Amino acid sequence: MLALFVSKPTNNPGPRFRAALLSATVSFRASTMYKAMHGLGAKNPMNLNKIMHLHLCLHLRMGAQWAMAATVVLLLLAAGCESDDADADASSDGPAKVVVAPAVEETIAAPLRVNGSIASMTKATIAAETAARVTRMDRRIGEFVKEGGELAVLDGSKNAIGIRQAQAAYRQAQAAAEKAEGDFKRAETLYKTDKISEQEYDTVRLGAEQARAAADMQRAALAALQRNAKDYVIRAPFDGYVTGVNLQEGDLAAPGVPAFTMIAAQGIKAVFKIPAEQIAAMKVGEVFQVQIPAAGTTLPATVSAVGMEADAMSRTFPVEMDIDVAETGARVGMVARLSAELPTANEGVFVPAKALVEKFGGTYLFVAKDNTARELPVTIRERTGDKVAVSGDLAAGDAVIIEGQHRLKNGAAIQVRDVRDIAEQTG
To answer: Hey, what long-range contacts does 219-224 have (CB within 8 A, 24 or more apart)?
Structure first.
């Protein structure tokens, strides 16, 4: 046939050339259709030769269009026959070998993923005890201060003057009291010898008591001014860090107006807002792993407080977790992340995830019963690692096919091996 195409060209091709060209064209069409419908690896090549010959005859007698239509029908029939033959061959291999595992009923764990923040276990807002101008600021944000350390000094000059005045008044009152006490002792002696009247004695005695009272009042006034002198220095209530400064030199400090904020040096906590559906799983003493991304660390945290009232807007409950680890690199205000699988009151039937078969837009699995594969549609409820909780016509203890299920059909004969038996043999 190739010689016809490479021979010397002619203006009037003969019948032999036209027949060869027609045969090649028909063969190419039939071969292309057959391979497209049945694949290149057809099991029965004789069908192809017969259909090509028939297509050529039809083309000569009925024309190209009718020949093409008839050939398509023949190709479909041939492909179907070969498919039946293939199924027959497959069925002749015997029952399909599969491995099963039991469906198990377990508690469904609900994933918890929430962000919170790091807070200090102890935090204080510090204000001045008295109204006065700030004369010296001793600390800045971030500085560490020991308990009792100075934070700021206020103008106590007026109080100092008051102390000196009170000291002088006290000395004067004390001297007057001592003189009155001496007069009373002399009057008492004279009264016993009847040298002064009772009225004169009572007058001297009363004067001595009044002098003593005046001295006591001056002493108390002096003590109050001396105690107030301590109020002109703002001090740290505990060992910690300064986190806020609201004053500067020259400002007027006043009682009740925040001057500094501090956090304790030791002890931090993570604060989260837990949804109402999962708050029951939060119990004091439970330990969770808390991630602090900014510090690049994950730390154990112990639940120390669980809120009893939900936020009106978010319907979440506050939960505090103590982090008792020194030098963690975590700082107050950093984001804390809590990831946990919390148990719920819901039970579910779990199967190995590899048992599922996805097809036709749905999820299925096969159950082995009486050496027969039974196909069941299921719905995924929850995924936990390599297990899946499903709902459907499935019960705990059913033998779920986990190997060999992808080539099965509903009702197929199977030869079953239990994954537990395999584990015992290999173990």
So the answer is: 219/170, 219/173, 219/174, 221/166, 221/169, 221/170, 222/163, 222/166, 222/167, 222/169, 222/170
What is the per-residue pLDDT across 361-391, written as a single tens digit (0 to 9) for each? 899 999 999 999 999 999 988 787 788 889 8
Of the candidates 273, 356, 263, which has an alpha carbon nearest to the alpha carbon of residue 307? 273
> Is the model more confident about 342 or about 337?
337
Backbone angles phi, psi at 55, to 5 degrees: -65, -35
pLDDT at 120: 86
Task: Tell me the pTM.
Answer: 0.47
- At a CB cut-off of 8 Å and minimum separation 6, what does 425 contact? none
Per-residue pLDDT, 20 = 46
Q: How far apart are CA 264 and CA 267, in angstroms?
A: 7
In a 13 Å sphere around the CA of 215, the CA atoms on its Cβ side amount to: 17
Q: How far apart are CA 280 and CA 344, in angstroms?
A: 9
**Beta strand spans in 207-306 (E):** 233-235, 240-245, 252-253, 258-264, 268-275, 287-292, 297-306
Rounded CA-CA distance 427/413 in Å is: 29
Are the C-beta atoms of residues 303 and 320 closer than 8 Å to each other?
A: yes
Q: What is the pLDDT of residue 74?
A: 53
Whose structure tokens read 């015992």? Answer: 424
